[in-house]
Amino acid sequence: MSTAVDSAQLQPPVQLSGNGAAPPATAPFKPPPLAPIFEPTVEEFQDFYGYLESIAPVVVHTGICKIRPPKDWNPPFGLDVATFRFKPRVQRLNELEAESRVKLNFLDQLAKFWDLQGVRLRVPNVDRRHLDLHRLYNVVRQLGGYQEVTSSKLWSKVAGAMGHKQAGKSLASQLKFHYQKILLPFDLLKSGSQAAKTAAPPAPAVKTVERQASAPLSDAEAGRCQRNGRALRQAAAAADDARRMQLWSSPIKRPPSPQPATTPSSTSSTTTTATKSTARAKRSNSGVGGGWLNSLLCRECRRGDQESVLLICEGCEAPYHTFCLYPPLPDVPPGDWRCPRCVSETIASAPRPAEYGFEQSRTEYSLADFGAMADEFKRNYFAAQESFSNNASGGGSSQVPLDQVEAEFWRLLQSLSESVSVEYGADIHSSVCGSGFPTRGCAIPATLSGGKPTSKLAAEWRAHSEHPWNLNNLPLGDSGLLRFLRQDINGMVIPWCYVGMLFSAFCWHIEDHWSYSINYLHWGDPKTWYGVPSASAPALETAMREEAGELFERSPDLLHHITTIMNPAKLMAKGVPVYRIDQEAGDFVITFPRAYHAGFNQGFNFAEAVNFCSPSWLPMGRECVEKYIEVRRPCVFSHEELVCNMAAEIDELTADQAEFLLDEIKELQPRLADLTKTVASVGIEASQREKFECLPDDDRQCSVCNTTLYICGVQCTCQRRRLVCARHPDELLCDGKDCRRKPQCHRLVYRHTEEELLAMTQAVSNRCDQLADWRRQADSILAQGADKDLPDRSVLESLERQAVQLRVSQSCARLRRLRGALRMADRAAGVLRLLLRAPDPGAGASGRISESAFRALDAKLRELPCRLAEGVEFEQLRDRVESWRSRARQVLANPAASCDSVSGLLSEADSSLPVAMDDAAALSALGRYLDWKAEARAALGVHGRDGDEAEGKQDQRPSLADLQRLVDEAAANADADSAAADDVEFVDLSAKVTSLHHQASRLSMSIRECLEPDRQPQPDAAELARLVEAGRDLRVRLEPLQRLSDLLIAAADWECRADGLLTADLKDSDRRPSLEELEKLAADGRSLGLKLERLPQLEALIGQANAWLERASRNFLKKQSPHSLLQVLLPRSADSFLGGPSEQQPLQQHKKAVLSSSGSSKSASATAFEDPSVRFSAEQTDADRVAAYRDLASRELQAALVARRRNDAAGGCYCGRQLAGGACFLQCELCRLWLHAACAPLPKYLKPLGTSGPTLRAALRELKYLCPACERGRRPRMENLLSLLLVLQPLPVQLTAGAALQCLTERAMAWQSRVHSTLLAAPSCDRLWWLL
């Protein structure tokens, strides 16, 4: 079954004539003001009824409110969605609104009226819009009717009331014309005037009737008929089409059209149509001589002529001329026609339409199926609306603003041209389908737990199943009244579930018995609510009756059907206060007693609701029953039974329940007594106790007012189900006969005797008396003053226990005050126990209570309605505090107070008073003032340096920090105490201390500037000496002064060391300073940060030495050489030759040597060769260094010879391969190592030749090659060596590399001398090889 109808596919309710413009848009919806929203705390959320009473003074003025639970309250959804099934209701939106339904019913009746006369109704256009026939009909009736409006010329006023801005004569004439042609006959029919006017006497016998001569119509009559016919042809409506449309598909059933009558002589059941041909056919069938038809006369003009326009009614066969009718017909109708009398009788005899209600859908949904349908409907609906599509672009239909959905909802409700149907799953019994809340004793749904509930989920389920805000528990709470009913009432005690979709609505209504209601939205789109306070409920009912009086005439209890809604804007215009609220998922909405409420859903959601009754509801419930009796509405439960059940369980009642119950139960006993007297007065003697609660509800209802009996009633023994209540004892009937004078047929039935009711009343009264006595005691104690004799704390505890026994509500103000007093007494006792302990000396104010807090505590203790055991000690402490305060004020007022008196008071407060006294600060300030003066005198009383006396007083001089503190304290004392400014001694001491502080500060700043390491220009020793002298003369202890003195001593020591090194004897090379000594001395001088006389000379000398070393390095070291200059200048070690003394890993050593020669790793060189520079250092004398050099040279020669012999014998490359005949290879000139061309690092100019070939082989034969292990550095010319030695000679620095160079030069010169000698002596080849 379809749940909604697309507006694009709908047909209009009636056919529209002309090409007029569309009707004007509905006025924008103005939402009512918001209802209050509450957010209870976690503590308030634990007591539902207590919190309800706290917000009642606010909500009673709005009738509705929203409550947002604490954020951590999120109950799991307890419904098993896999098994949940329901059938929703079908709602047609424009049939819900009261005015729209009235209009639809009116148009339906109007279309039926014209249909019976064979005319199709068409709605005309006036002022470029469709004419509102219903409004026009009502406006004319309000102004006195057609005759009054016409005679008083009020049609312009009618046009203004219809909403036409320009109500001119032409518009007024159009409205008059359409009313006269369309509505006036209908109005005359409804008023009965037309039926009375056309009532004709019985037709005379056919045989005695003489046919009158026919006379032609006058010109005036013919013209009138012609004009009326043209007008009726222009007026518009297709009733048959309207009945077939969905807009008219309300439950109101229409009677079948009456069948046309047949002639008296016809035996056939075939019907005929009243046309001219029908009339002729009847004449022809009548036989010769005319028959019965010739004798028929028009019931108006009593003439039988003009047969062509003579109509015969299909109902009564009465003849009428078309021009004799009112209004006249321009032509014979083509269909069935009935005379005005038959039309009136048909409409009058038609059965009353059935009560309007919602149809039940034929489709059974699951939540998933219904949600898919609802989401698709919302998405499609707003996608078809251009204005909503623009607003919701990018967010889907769920993003349509709530206010726009609300405006669209009310527009649809008032639109007759659009019919939208939705479905609403309302009033689904949770006892059958399950509740959305966790329920005690029910298993966790598999859809929630996945088949294996965790312990956390189980604990959460258990906690929420027992929570007071769980709707399954809420009506049956301790303060709830419905727990005293002996029956489970769906919707009141057992919650109902609601599954909504877009635009599904609930109409204006109040809850049964005017009870409270609470609704919780588990999930889904919001739900919009409207509420009216209970005080305005009569005003809403009056406004609804004024708006839809016809509906209330049919159904006086229309508002109890929950099928009619009215726009809140109309209600507010009539003075009815309306409030709105949007309920979102996780929100509660509460409606108060007799608060009308309505609303609709913004989309797919799931909600749950239940009724409940608080103790304060009892008077309202009794008033509701009285109202039900007036309108004869049956009760859902017996109010009297509820009252008696409460009285029977007096011990289970809370205090509020007992108090409200007293007034209710007092109403019962007099009612039974009055009825007893009444039945006794009429002679009824029989009586019987009846357990009404065991009877079905239908068997215990009053036959007159339908109220449910419980206390008493009168029963007819002839018909046991015939009962009347105590209000209608005289209206009991039996078998349609008056039984009031037959006492033997009646008997009094009762549930409780008068004695039992009196006993119940007395029990409740006693309970209320106990409550009143408890209140008096509590008020007396809580109102105790400090001058009265206070009770012990145990009395308060006894009152609290009585409150628990009497079941006083937790929200009771007296009980809260009583418990608050007990808590305050306990806290005060705890504070006193801590306060009365001995204070911790030296703890200061942090470990003590302030004097203001102490006085506040004293005031609180005076307000306590009970005595404390620690009160006596506290009073003693209070006396000590007051005594100390008095003495402190005396000292502060004495200008000649001594330091001892001040310190004594402060010591007393610190050691014996656990209170941080306010005057302690002033005393401390006074003590500091006096101490300052003494300290200032001491600081200024120290004289300058005078021999031993000054040296002995160095430690007594104040520091710069002391002076700064004295200056700050002087300023603080002057600001805090105006008397200090008048103290001459204080002013003089302050000025002197300030002056001394300024001098010390300037000197300290100068000293610190001298000590700055990066100061430019650097200070000299003379400046330091001047500052040191000034600091010694000042009567202040400066910490930087000692550092400055130490720096001055260090500078003098450095100058001495520098003089010693720079004035050494240059002729003795052993006494020359080494470069390392000079660099260390220069670094020490620069670290002092002073301007030293010898430092530039020293740095110049170091620069010369470094310049010589740089020049020597350029001559001997290759680029990126891993060796130092000294290593290159000294002879090689024995391990540096491949084939030397070490035979363990020659190939690996040679490989490292190759890598070292290429500069790829310095660490490889360090591990490959023994460093000979270890034996050649600056600490040695020249003779020692020469001896060491000669020893190293001898070792180098021996190692070279050994390596040559071994490498000659090896005959292969170090890579392990033999030297093939065609390969390119070369041999080291020193160690005789053979190498492949590919294994040896070749010179750059040979690299383009590759690693083989005849060209490379020829080049290698001419190459004097040294392997990387033998060639560690460059081989400069002898002239360069001599030049370096010439530069080194005058340099007053001892350089180890210089000594090594000198030894190397001597060795080279000695070798040259031997070569010359050998060549002159014609040496042998062996000798020459040795020299090489």
Summarize the structure.
With 1332 residues, the chain is of the alpha+beta class. Strand 28 and strand 29 (1234-1236) form a beta hairpin.
Kindly list the characteristics that best describe this protein.
29 strands; disordered N terminus; nucleus; iron
The share of residues in helices is 40-55%
**What spatial form do the alpha-carbon principal axes imply?**
elongated
Question: CA-to-CA gap between the ends?
Answer: 121 Å
Q: Which value, in Å, is the CA radius of gyration?
A: 61 Å
Number of helices: 47
Tell me the strand percentage band: 5-15%
Average predicted confidence as pLDDT: 77
Largest sheet: 9 strands, mixed
Low-pLDDT parts are: 1-25, 193-291, 392-397, 942-953, 1140-1149, 1154-1169
Per DSSP E runs of 2 or more residues, the count of β-strands stands at 29
Q: What topology, given as strand order, has the largest sheet?
A: 1-2-17-14-19-12-11-4-9
The helix/strand class is alpha+beta
What does this structure look like?
- The chain is α+β, with helices and mostly antiparallel strands and 1332 residues long.
- It has a nine-stranded mixed sheet. A four-stranded antiparallel sheet has the order 13-18-15-16, covered by helices on one side.
- Strand 28 (1225-1227) and strand 29 form a beta hairpin.
- Helix 25 (668-681) runs antiparallel to helix 26.
- The longest helix has 29 residues, at 754-782.
- The protein is elongated and about 185 Å long.
Lay out the secondary structure.
Layout: E1 37-38, H1 48-59, E2 64-67, E3 85-86, E4 89-92, H2 98-116, E5 125-126, E6 129-130, H3 133-142, H4 146-151, H5 155-161, H6 169-191, H7 193-198, H8 219-234, H9 239-244, H10 276-285, H11 291-294, E7 310-312, E8 319-321, H12 340-349, E9 359-360, E10 365-366, H13 367-384, H14 386-391, H15 402-413, E11 421-429, H16 430-433, H17 446-449, H18 455-465, E12 496-500, E13 505-509, E14 516-524, E15 527-531, H19 537-547, H20 549-554, H21 568-573, E16 579-583, E17 588-591, E18 597-601, E19 605-612, H22 618-631, H23 639-648, H24 655-665, H25 668-681, E20 687-689, E21 712-716, E22 723-724, E23 733-734, E24 737-738, E25 746-750, H26 754-782, H27 793-805, H28 813-835, E26 849-850, H29 851-863, H30 871-893, H31 899-912, E27 915-916, H32 918-940, H33 948-952, H34 960-976, H35 984-1011, H36 1021-1033, H37 1039-1062, H38 1075-1088, H39 1095-1116, H40 1125-1129, H41 1146-1157, H42 1162-1168, H43 1182-1210, E28 1225-1227, E29 1234-1236, H44 1254-1262, H45 1278-1288, H46 1296-1320, H47 1325-1331
Parallel strand pairs: 1-2, 20-25, 26-27
Antiparallel strand pairs: 2-17, 3-10, 4-9, 4-11, 5-6, 7-8, 11-12, 12-19, 13-18, 14-17, 14-19, 15-16, 15-18, 21-22, 21-25, 23-24, 28-29
Pfam families: ARID, JmjC, JmjN, KDM5_C-hel, PHD, PLU-1, zf-C5HC2
Protein name: [histone H3]-trimethyl-L-lysine(4) demethylase
GO molecular function, one term: zinc ion binding
